[in-house]
Amino acid sequence: MRPAFPLCLALLAGCASTTPPPPPPAPPSWQAPRPHEGEPQALARWWDRFDDPQLAALVARAQADNPTLAQAVARIAQARAQLTVAGAALSPTLDGNLAASRTSNNFPPPTLTYTAVTSRVDAAWELDLFGGRRAGIAAAQAQADAAAAQWHDARVSLAAEVALNYLSLRACEAQVALDAQNVAAAGQIADLTRRKVEVGFESPANGALAQATLSDTRARAQAQQAECEVVVKALVALTGLEEPALRAQLAARAAQLPQPAGFSIAALPAQVLAQRPDLAAAEQQLRAAAASVDVAQAQRWPKLLLTGAITLGAVRIGGVQDSGANWALGPALTLPLLDGGRRRAEVDAARARLDEALAAWQQRSRAAVREVEEALVRLDAAARREEDARLAAENWQRFVEATQARWELGNASLIELQDARRQRIAAEAALLAVRRERVAAWVQLYKASGGGWDGSLAVGEEAGASRNLAATAAATTAPESNLSKP
After folding, report:
1. Do 152 and 275 form a contact (C-beta atoms < 8 A)?
2. Burial of 119 (0-12, 13-18, 19+ CB in 10 A)
3. How far apart are CA 272 and CA 281, in angstroms?
4. Can you list the residues of the chain whose pLDDT is less than 70?
5. Full-model pTM
């Protein structure tokens, strides 16, 4: 009978291991056109490759002081602490207890007063027969790695958000500059029309039309200026800078869209998906869910606990002292017999969470492929449309100049001139929108490609100018955990 029990335990322990399902494969190739023929190139520190140093400075500032990143760092610290807690479960525990009391007893006589002092040391060690404790450590490690990857993902998302808001501000300022030119032109036309009305060369209706056009152009310019103010407020919130200091910093390159140095994208989707921190986090959460199944499964099997205690005591009565010691040592076996199906339900719940984690990974993987494809499509479309939009704006400008010259000579009506101006304004706005869309597509492609994260960097390595956050992250996420390990 003796050899059978260890063999039974070994067989049960082997049944407790759960392996996470393999993730779905990435598509074999991209369907959208890729820039620069798709030669691989690192994306890290890409913001420094813009022709606008202020963008890189704002990104670095946001990385240094942002509540979202601070929360991510705090989650890393929590996950590291939980990993320590899980690791401690494999070690023996040792607790000490010291008690002293003085007692008086006067019934029956004579009165006795005595002092008792007791010290006790208790030790316990649970043998991890079925791997539940080790599975708990694996789950905690996976959660810690997921928290570190989520910090990277938060950094990438924050950088892209700062860049897109900065791009929106510069595009808005450029539109304000165009609106100012349009207001000036509308003012000139309104003034000339008023003079013509006074001398009888134009009807009062055309004078009213010219004034209405001027007022409408001014109103749109004021609305556009308000939009710029809103974007400035967003940048203040993202970077933590005081608004006067931010405005002074932004004034040097007003109305100039930043131009990136184009980077290339890997030819195979699997290479791009491997460097996305959100997918790495989802994969680690999948591993943690699989380990949690083992933890729940281990609760259904017996537990073997080794316990021991040493007690020292002393009693003093009327000047007479007596002392002694005793000890105890032995195993304790706990057998789960009847729990109303609770442990089985906990295993079922853990398996359901594993299925949920797998579905979340698959959803994130598909979304990642879609985001890259969409960014590639937008980038290709914007690049092909920009030249046509530029030519359209230039030709509409020539047409407006010719129409205004004809109108001043009386060979064109005011309605023709106003229609030509509206077409020119629309063409200029379309050109600005295409240029903004092209830069935004680069930013979105940077974000969709994982922002240069490849899983081998320490959490604080790429912080650059973010001194405070980098120092905190480096302290809480030392390279002891290789994020790229399976």
Report:
1. no
2. middle
3. 15
4. 1-45, 106-110, 262-272, 318, 452-486
5. 0.75
Number of Cβ atoms within 10 Å of the Cβ of 216? 11
Two tokens at 290?
């699989």
Whether residue 61 contacts residue 465, with contact meaning beta carbons closer than 8 Å, is answered with yes
Q: What is the pLDDT of residue 407?
A: 80
* Domains, the chain: 20-90+132-301+352-476 (1.20.1600.10), 91-127+302-335 (2.20.200)
Per-residue 3-state assignment (H helix, E strand, C coil) for 416-461: HHHHHHHHHHHHHHHHHHHHHHHHHHHHHHHHHCCCCCCCCCCCCC
CB burial of 302-314 (b: ≥16 within 10 Å; e: otherwise) equals ebbeebebeeeee
The CA-atom distances, in angstroms, between 119 and each of 309, 315, 452 are 11, 12, 59
For 115, phi then psi, to 5°, come to -120, 135
Residue 93, CB-side half-sphere exposure with 13 Å CA sphere: 14
Burial of 436 (0-12, 13-18, 19+ CB in 10 A): buried
What is the chain's alpha carbon radius of gyration, rounded to the nearest angstrom? 36
The CA-to-CA distance between both ends of the chain, in Å, stands at: 41
What's residue 5's pLDDT?
A: 38
Structure tokens at 112: 């006795």
Q: What is the dihedral of CA 453, 264, 467, 157, to 10 degrees?
A: -70
pLDDT value, residue 23: 55
